[in-house]
């Protein structure tokens, strides 16, 4: 098991270097000059040229890339923001807690609502409840986040005056964005749980368990759910990975200073070091969540645990 | 039983998780005030977060809006755009190139240091140095070898050449603000996050991308603001700013967009404040590119466009249709200019004379500002009538700027905001041939206009100077490097009980005079 985890972590390094290379390339072929953006449109050209030289932006592409990787790996230095001049790790860590809070809350909402809805829908297939859940899940999946966000703001902030429409300071501020961001995940998890449950319920071993005279609730919760959860965990994990990457639209609509918004602003300002570090952070977060999901499998399904060595 | 226990424990964990997440709030919570307590915090919604609070390294409105509360200059402009001393008690002009400033005594910086002539010298030299690239256009005429300290409260500043608008230029929030040498040196690279000035508010905290908190500076020599703290919240979504204002989440909201103006205007709890600002939106021609190097083509396009209704519909009554290169808020604005009538026949005739009887295809550039894209769309249909097939290219700002600076554009829509109301600031950087590619994106050059622009910088304010600038504006209209579109307007919404606040035409609004009417 430990070996397996170590192997997974070792595999992370080439992934990160690959991701860095792709982002580095994309940033460098995008038009727009970081030195110009840092100094403003009225700065004299010679000052901009001088700054480009200082930033090392005139060196050949591979020299720049090599320098970045070398500094990152051997000196743990991801550089400083071109705009604020602060270390990028600090800039990312300043906004990371906010994004973590937002995504964790949305995930909690998604799991608390999605799994029970999915189970009940599956057990009571074709009932009125099932139809209602399916309709809502359909709406949840197809409704764009920014649209839902604006509608919710109109209803809860403007019309009813119950909740604030922007910021992320107190529990009250967190309700709307988490619900809006979680809506899609609720829908996805509900549908996944439902279809996965339906598949498991029809299997022979469930009939066997029932034939043994087990109570229906135990059949569903203990035997069926455990097997049905595996694909649900995968989906939930991927969802959480996405959310950690900074729910850009939600953060923009509700003016939440998270990773997503920082990245968007930094791309606009051509603040390369922040964008690079931000993408690295997202890649690490994603890989970490994936690893967690795989380990959860082992916990849920002993057959998988047996394969880890 | 076991199941119940398990469910219960899961619920407990969840409750703890949510509790802990919700519990770790951050600064900015000051924004939410409890009813019943005396409100001593002013909450302002801005459209962007500041880039940095180091005045020499940036020149954007969002940063200046914050800096205007923290820093002060030697001189500033009053409501009538007249020069008044801020940190200077008085000043004299010794000759065409030399100015003497007598500083106010006993002025304190936020770190307790006293403001002295050495700080003036340090600030000006730093602005002239490589740290000051963003404000070079403001202080560039100062000769670094001619800054002489006479005593702690007297300093002489010499210029490279006669420059009559020098005093107006140094009222700029950026190039002209006074820094404390000790604070700058101690903070090093982090100075932009630890600013120290002499203004009525001092810096307290900054959550990047979210809010900046300023605290009243109780030792200010004469300004005693009513609010103990100001929270400037960056809310880029225009609609969210308006909603926050309506729901009382903020007291003042900047940049109310045209679509939200009626909502704020009709709301009995709110006040809508408007002030024509110093910005001009324009359609520029690249005068070095065919066919726009021919003035007839430029004029034909100007005649084919019906700018007045276009601007009125796109901006929904915010701002005014523009008549010339500078707006009515600027000194020496030529009131005799007018908006030309649309004349398709005349436009076609001019195109024919220029050798394009059938018209031609071209491209207009704009960035992703909605109003600009809307205007480009209207132009597209209006120019069809004279045979011009216009394609619209929407670019993201950074790429747009790079294209403009490298002369890749044919037609482009952009705006210019003067940082002080002197006509020099709205004309020289945009039409002088030495500024091609710097801010003169029309790549326009005309010897006669160059000469007049240079003279305008030497003449003292007088009837002669006024006459000169009237002529410059007429000549520019005649040569048509631009089609003038709109003079902008500052539109600010406030809660009804906020008094003493006046929007500034420069876009960085002063907040320290605001108070609550009980």
From TrEMBL, chain A:
Molecular function terms, GO-annotated: nickel cation transmembrane transporter activity
Topological category with respect to the lipid bilayer: Multi-pass membrane protein
Organism of provenance: Anaeromicrobium sediminis
Pfam family, one: BPD_transp_1
Name of the protein described by the UniProt record: Nickel import system permease protein NikB
Assembly notes: The complex is composed of two ATP-binding proteins (NikD and NikE), two transmembrane proteins (NikB and NikC) and a solute-binding protein (NikA).
Location(s), subcellular: Cell membrane
Family of the protein in this entry: Belongs to the binding-protein-dependent transport system permease family. OppBC subfamily.
Domain ABC transmembrane type-1 span(s) in chain numbering: 96-293
NCBIfam families (alphabetical): Opp2B
TrEMBL record, chain B:
Leader sequence segment: 1-22
Subcellular location: Cell membrane
GO terms for biological process, alphabetical: peptide transport
PROSITE patterns xref list: PROKAR_LIPOPROTEIN (PS51257), SBP_BACTERIAL_5 (PS01040)
Residue ranges of the TM segments: none
Domain of life: Bacteria
Domain spans labelled Solute-binding protein family: 82-435
InterPro entries noted in UniProt: Peptide/Ni-bd (IPR030678), SBP_5 (IPR039424), SBP_5_CS (IPR023765), SBP_5_dom (IPR000914)
A GO cellular-component term linked to this record: ATP-binding cassette (ABC) transporter complex
Membrane topology value: Lipid-anchor
Keyword annotations: Signal, Transport
GO molecular function: peptide transmembrane transporter activity
Family to which the UniProt record says this protein belongs: Belongs to the bacterial solute-binding protein 5 family.
PANTHER family xref list: OLIGOPEPTIDE-BINDING PROTEIN APPA (PTHR30290:SF9), PERIPLASMIC BINDING COMPONENT OF ABC TRANSPORTER (PTHR30290)
Protein name per the record: Solute-binding protein family 5 domain-containing protein
Lineage: Bacteria, Bacillati, Bacillota, Clostridia, Peptostreptococcales
């Amino acid at each position: 098991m430990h070996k397996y985890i170590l192997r997974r972590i070792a595999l992370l390094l080439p992934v990160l270097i690959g991701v860095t290379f792709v982002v580095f390339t994309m940033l460098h072929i995008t038009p727009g000059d970081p030195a110009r953006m840092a100094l403003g449109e009225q700065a004299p050209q010679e000052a901009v040229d001088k700054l480009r030289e200082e930033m090392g932006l005139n060196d050949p592409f591979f020299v720049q890339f090599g320098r970045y990787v070398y500094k990152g790996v051997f000196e743990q230095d991801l550089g400083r923001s071109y705009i604020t001049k602060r270390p990028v790790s600090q800039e990312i860590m300043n906004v990371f807690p906010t994004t973590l809070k937002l995504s964790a809350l949305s995930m909690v909402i998604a799991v608390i609502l999605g799994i029970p809805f999915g189970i009940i829908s599956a057990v009571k297939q074709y009932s009125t409840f099932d139809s209602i859940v399916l309709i809502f899940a359909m709406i949840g999946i197809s409704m764009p986040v920014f649209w839902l966000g604006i509608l919710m703001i109109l209803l809860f902030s403007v019309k009813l005056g119950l909740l604030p429409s922007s910021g992320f300071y107190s529990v009250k501020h967190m309700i709307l964005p988490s619900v809006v961001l979680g809506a899609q995940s609720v829908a996805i998890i509900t549908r996944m749980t439902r279809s996965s449950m339906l598949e498991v319920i029809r299997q022979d071993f469930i009939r066997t368990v029932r034939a043994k005279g087990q109570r229906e609730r135990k059949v569903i919760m203990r035997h069926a759910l455990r097997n049905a959860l595996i694909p649900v965990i995968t989906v939930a994990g991927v969802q959480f990975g996405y959310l950690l990457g900074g729910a850009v639209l939600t953060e923009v609509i509700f003016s939440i200073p998270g990773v997503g918004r920082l990245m968007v602003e930094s791309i606009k300002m051509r603040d390369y070091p922040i964008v690079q570090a931000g993408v690295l952070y997202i890649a690490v977060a994603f890989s970490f969540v994936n690893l967690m999901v795989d380990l959860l499998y082992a916990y849920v399904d002993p057959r998988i645990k047996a394969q880890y060595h | 039983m076991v199941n119940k226990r398990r469910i219960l424990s899961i619920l407990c964990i969840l409750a703890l998780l949510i509790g802990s997440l919700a519990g770790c709030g951050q600064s900015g919570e000051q924004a939410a005030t409890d009813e019943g307590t005396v409100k001593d915090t002013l909450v302002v919604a801005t459209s962007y977060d500041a880039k940095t609070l180091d005045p020499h390294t940036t020149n954007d409105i969002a940063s200046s809006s914050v800096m205007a509360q923290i820093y002060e200059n030697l001189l500033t402009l009053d409501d009538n755009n007249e020069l008044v001393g801020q940190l200077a008690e008085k000043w004299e002009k010794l000759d065409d190139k030399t100015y003497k400033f007598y500083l106010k005594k006993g002025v304190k910086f936020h770190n307790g240091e006293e403001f002295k002539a050495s700080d003036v010298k340090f600030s000006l030299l730093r602005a002239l140095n490589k740290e000051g690239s963003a404000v070079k256009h403001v202080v560039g005429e100062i000769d670094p070898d001619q800054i002489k300290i006479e005593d702690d409260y007297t300093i002489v500043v010499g210029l490279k050449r006669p420059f009559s608008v020098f005093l107006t230029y140094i009222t700029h929030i950026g190039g002209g603000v006074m820094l404390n040498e000790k604070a700058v040196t101690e903070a090093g690279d982090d100075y932009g996050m630890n600013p120290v000035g002499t203004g009525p508010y001092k810096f307290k905290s900054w959550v990047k991308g979210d809010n900046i908190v300023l605290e009243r500076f109780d030792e200010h020599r004469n300004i005693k603001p009513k609010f103990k703290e100001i929270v400037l919240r960056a809310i880029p979504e225009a609609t969210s700013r308006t909603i926050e204002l309506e729901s009382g989440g903020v007291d003042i909201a900047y940049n109310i967009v045209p679509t939200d103006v009626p909502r704020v205007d009709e709301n009995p709890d709110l006040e809508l404040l408007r002030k024509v600002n110093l910005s001009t939106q324009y359609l520029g021609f690249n005068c070095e590119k065919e066919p726009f190097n021919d003035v007839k083509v430029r004029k034909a396009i100007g005649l084919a466009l019906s700018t007045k209704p276009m601007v009125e519909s796109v901006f929904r009554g915010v701002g005014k249709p523009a008549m010339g290169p500078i707006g009515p808020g600027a000194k020496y604005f030529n009131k005799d200019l007018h908006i030309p009538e649309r004349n398709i026949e005349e436009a076609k005739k001019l195109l024919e004379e220029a050798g394009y009887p059938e018209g031609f295809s071209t491209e207009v550039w704009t960035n992703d500002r909605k109003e600009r894209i809307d205007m480009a769309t209207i132009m597209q249909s209006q120019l069809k009538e004279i045979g011009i097939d216009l394609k619209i290219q929407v670019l993201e700002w950074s790429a747009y700027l790079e294209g403009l600076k490298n002369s890749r554009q044919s037609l482009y829509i952009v705006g210019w905001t003067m940082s002080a109301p002197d006509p020099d600031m709205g004309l020289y950087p945009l039409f002088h041939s030495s500024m091609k590619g710097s801010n003169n994106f029309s790549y326009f050059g005309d010897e006669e206009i160059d000469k007049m622009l240079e003279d305008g910088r030497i003449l003292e304010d007088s009837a002669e100077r006024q006459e000169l600038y009237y002529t410059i504006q007429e000549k520019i209209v005649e040569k048509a490097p631009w089609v003038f579109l709109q003079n902008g307007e500052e539109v600010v919404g406030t809660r009804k009980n906020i008094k003493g606040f006046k929007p500034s035409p420069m876009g960085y609004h002063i907040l320290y005079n605001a108070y609550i009417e009980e």
